[in-house]
Design brief:
Elements: E1 2-8, E2 12-19, E3 22-30, H1 37-50, E4 55-62, E5 65-67, E6 71-74, E7 83-84, H2 85-93, E8 96-101, H3 102-113, E9 121-126, E10 130-136, E11 139-140, H4 171-174, H5 176-188, H6 207-215, H7 219-243, E12 247-251, H8 253-258, H9 260-273, E13 284-286, H10 293-303
Parallel strand pairs: 1-4, 4-8, 9-12, 12-13
Antiparallel strand pairs: 1-2, 2-3, 5-6, 6-7, 9-10, 10-11
Helix pairs in contact: 3-10, 6-7, 7-9
Length: about 300
């Protein structure tokens, strides 16, 4: 028997079929979320059925607030708010379904791929937003359903606005959504940067372009790099003081595309800001699975943890 894992993203639906712990087949189609809930659900079901074959279960990664591995409470980029996705998918496909937050599943995938040897792990995944995940006591921890929203802890009171409706969140300084705000301020100030070349107002930044700008010494790109790394290092130090986990895992497009120099800068700030008497237990690593972490997490969860 095989197991499916579906990443329901804002721009694409990526479905993978696993056999004996490895991906043996993948299919990808556009999400087309603007067409509405009914159209999206139809596309999801058709994609799943096209690869169902001998599958027994499926994990579904959703970028939102999920309760009881079933109910989508809030999903900003997809028309799935207040919807029991598990019940729907099970009815339409006949598969056992497990629904989870995409970043929590990404952390779960990373943890399982490492053999599950650490009891307490914190994941921080920086891309367009800053997602978080928690493994506590050897279990994926979700609190009452939405725990792990590390990106929305406050970093700077009365700071930049955030997509969550708050102000000054870590996400607004670490992730590309916050960088975009600074970029547009910079443009209004009349600044020059290669990050402004050939792009439309409001268009999300590309992590690869940010990394290129940094390597070329572009002043704005360097500013965004340093601000992001410092903020992420601060988040790690604060979380270490509260949880003192065995391991922090960093992933996402910002981390992957900035590369080793970014990791070193984040680690530097984490070491500067960590509580001195706890510094010897601070351990940080980057993602092993990169962009596949969530897909693997969905697989492991659907497999039965």
């Amino acid at each position: 028997m095989s197991i499916l894992s579906l990443d329901v993203g804002g721009s694409k639906l990526l479905l993978a079929r696993f056999s004996q712990g490895e991906i043996v087949e993948e299919r990808q189609i556009p999400t087309l979320a603007h067409e509405g809930r009914e159209a999206l659900l139809k596309r999801m079901v058709e994609l799943i059925l096209s690869m169902k074959e001998d599958a027994s279960s499926i994990g579904l990664l959703i970028p939102g607030v999920i309760y009881q591995n079933s109910y989508v409470r809030k999903c900003s980029n997809l028309p799935l708010n207040d919807f029991d996705l598990k019940a729907f998918i099970e009815k339409e496909t006949g598969l056992s379904a497990f629904v989870g937050n995409d970043v929590s599943f990404a952390l779960y995938g990373e943890w399982k791929k490492r053999g599950g040897h650490f009891n307490n792990v914190v994941g921080l995944f920086a891309g367009s937003g800053l997602g978080g995940g928690l493994i506590l006591g050897g279990e994926l921890y979700s609190g009452q359903g939405a725990a792990g929203e590390i990106g929305h802890m406050n970093y700077i009171p009365e700071g930049r606005s955030c997509g969550c409706g708050g102000w000054g969140c870590y996400e607004s300084y670490v992730a590309k959504s916050g960088m975009l705000q600074r970029l547009e301020e910079f443009a209004q100030e009349g600044g020059n940067s290669i990050l402004l070349e050939g792009r439309k107002s409001g268009e999300m930044l590309d992590s690869r372009v940010l990394a290129k700008g940094y390597k070329l010494g572009d002043s704005l790109a360097v500013e965004l790099f340093e601000e992001s790394a410092r903020a992420l290092g601060s988040a790690i130090a604060s979380l270490h003081a509260v949880l003192e986990p065995d391991l922090f895992i960093l992933g996402g497009g910002v981390v992957d595309d900035y590369g080793e120099e970014y990791f070193d800068e984040v680690n530097k700030w984490a070491q500067i800001l960590v509580m001195p008497s706890m510094a010897n237990t601070l351990k940080i690593e980057t993602s092993m699975l990169k962009g596949k972490a969530g897909i693997y997490g969905g697989y492991y969860f659907a497999k039965g943890k």
